[in-house]
Amino acid sequence: MIDVWTEKHRPDTLSEVVGQDKITERLEAFVEEDSIPHMMFAGPAGTGKTTSAVALAKDLYGDDWKQNFMETNASDERGIDVVREKIKDFARTKSVNADYKIIFLDEADALTSDAQQALRRTMEQFSGNCRFILSCNYSSKIIDPIQSRCAVFRFNRLEEDDVKEYIKRLGKEEDFKISKDAIEAVMRVSEGDLRRVTNILQTASINNEEIEEEDIYGVAASLRPEEIHEILEKSLNGDFIEAREELADLMIDRGLDGQDVISSIHREIFELDISDEGKLEIMEKLGEFEFRISEGGSSDIQIEALLAQISNLEEN
Amino acid sequence: MWTEKYRPESLSEYRGASSEKKDLKKHIEKWEQGDKAVLLHGQAGTGKTSLVQALANDLGYELVETNASDVRTKSKLKSELKEATRQASFIGGKKLILIDEVDGMSGNSDRGGVKEIGTIVDETRFPIVMTANDAYDNSIRSLRNKAKTIELGSVHTNSIAAFLRDILDEEGIEYEDGVPKRIARQAGGQMRSAINDLEAIARGKERITKDDMDVIGQRDNRQEIFDSLKIIFKTKNLSNANQATENLDEDADTMVQWIRENIPREYKRPGDLSRAYDWVSKADVFNGRIRRRMNWKLLKYVYDFSTIGVALAKEEKYQGWTKYQYPSKIRQMGQSRASRQKLDSISSKMGEKLHMSKKDVKADLPLYANLFRERPDIAEGLELEDKEIEFLEKF
Question: Which of A42, A100, B49, B59 is the most buried (most CB within 10 A)?
Answer without folding.
Answer: A42
